[in-house]
Amino acid sequence: MYFKNHPIKLVDSRLHGTGTELFIVEGDSAASVVANLRDAQFQAVLPMQGKPLNAAKATLEKAMNYPLFKALADSLGVKLGYDFNFNQLQFERVILLFDPDADGIHSGALMLLFFYQFMRPMLEAGKIEMIHAPWMQVSIQGQSPMYAFSEAQSLSLLTQLRAQGHEPITVRYRGLAGIDREILFNTCINPTTRNARVMNSADAWMAIQVFGGVM
After folding, report:
1. Which pTM does this prediction carry?
2. For 138, which DSSP code?
3. Residue 61: left if φ>0, alpha if ψ -120 to 50, beta else—which one?
4. DSSP of 91-110, one letter per residue?
5. pLDDT > 90: what percent of the chain?
6. CATH number of 2-132+176-212
């Protein structure tokens, strides 16, 4: 799929329908890594070019012509807004997987706004998941590595370990492409082990309250 000067290419799965999922990730680099690790039988990948449009401030016409939203609707096989038809969905779930930083959090909030505005039935049915990629790896001698999924969690973990007399070794992850492949697979891609949370309309409404008026 190509739109204007921003090519958005769906890396499709072999199957569609029940049990399949579509990952939305930030940029071609992350998309390439995820595409190489995913199960091509049921997992597809759609790269996002730049931050999404703020759907809370967009008309349906503008959303329909926005490259990412148009590519997403085409990939899912549905239309936006009142014409959305749940029975036409090509994938059972959409998985939001962004970098573990402020930009990633912002992008996740913007995507929730989009689903709330133009594909709300998916949110209400629990078909949108947010992956929390590891923020930091923390290691101490003689034990398996531990992972923090936010700055606050990493600070708490480091404080606790140091209080116990340990000298933790840390690795701060800046983006999905910088995460060890096995760690990325286990924490973000494998459905049985990944750190995911099902989103709903309340999560989107919270994003509107925090970001909607200022983005």
Report:
1. 0.89
2. E
3. alpha
4. EEEEEEE--SSHHHHHHHHH
5. 67
6. 3.40.50.670
